[in-house]
Amino acid sequence: MECTAKLQSDNENVRDANHEKVAVKNIGVTLFDGFALPDAASVVEAFQSANALVDSDQGRPARYNVCLLSSIGGRVASSSSVYVWTESVDARRHNEQFHALFVAGGTGVQDAMRDEELLAWLRRTCPRAELVYPIGEGRLLLDAAGFTYTQGGVRIDDRGSYLSNLSARAPTTQEVPASLRAALSIIQEDLGPEITRQIADWVLPPAPTQFTDIIRRNTMRNVSEKIQASARWLEANGSRPVAIEEAAQVAAMSGRNFLRRFKTEMGVTPSDYLLYVRLDMCCRLLIETTLPIDKIARRSGIGSGGRLAKLFRKYLGKTPTDYRANRRRLNRST
């Protein structure tokens, strides 16, 4: 995959439906082996969604030229072993300017901090960018290149802090990742709040439930990569019958060692974690759909509406029907 949403010319001006000139904005996302995929992906998805909305709904051409970049280009592996295709930083023209340059974080940032070619490119490119924004640990990479929030002549800031009411699913900006707030802020300046709200509904993380904090433990730094991988596998397969031995195989551990390590690092047993994943899924389906209770139970791997009702009474003190009604009343009042 080459640069996403590639336009005919990097600095070409195009006309919108009202025949006004619209400047194409170059958006760079700097990646490296071991980068954290979710936050980087949400930034890319926000700009791609903006291009799609403007093009399809208003008859205007795309606004953003989004490029995925790495030191030598080619295939780059995220920390979750998902591969993306990038363009080499040296392939970019030396006089090219980015409206916004996002610098990814992730477990591979320590190795990236020793990549002199990447650091040299950042030193050349950041001063020419209108906005430089670190994603999580990307701040460490910028520090290694000699840039901080107060030095280096580079504008590095927290864009989008003023955004509010982005979505019914995220009524406060604190619930929106900082890097995504930055992307949405740029889009709002260009396309207005209505389009920005539509995009936010598409790309924001799902609304948190009572079980979200437990599930998010798999991203904590004190959780090993093998246990993280097994937890993600349980999340991805929670809707079907699962044997814990399968998750142990994902972690490349014996069953006994896996059970011990998982409980030590995650604070719950694999079986309990799987149950929380399924209950979290049920909560989301109750909030976001009108599916009947029995169908939600089957889709979430719970089995039956009767068993789901027992679990809801045990963990939440209410029935699934009451939970749905209460959450909808809360959403209407916000």
Report on this model:
Residues 228-326 form the HTH araC/xylS-type domain. Keywords: DNA-binding, Plasmid, Transcription, Transcription regulation. This is AraC family transcriptional regulator. Helix content is 46%, strand content 11%. With 334 residues, it is an alpha/beta fold. It has 2 domains: 13-203, Rossmann fold, CATH 3.40.50; 212-333, Arc Repressor Mutant, subunit A. Strand 1 and strand 2 (21-23) form a beta hairpin. Helix 1 (37-58) packs across helix 6, helix 5 (178-191) packs antiparallel against helix 6 and helix 8 crosses helix 9.
Major sheet: 6 strands, mixed
Domain count: the total is 2
CATH superfamily (homologous) name of the largest domain = Class I glutamine amidotransferase (GATase) domain
Determine the oligomeric state from the structure. single chain
Principal-axis shape: globular
Distinct helical segment count: 14
Helix amount: 40-55%
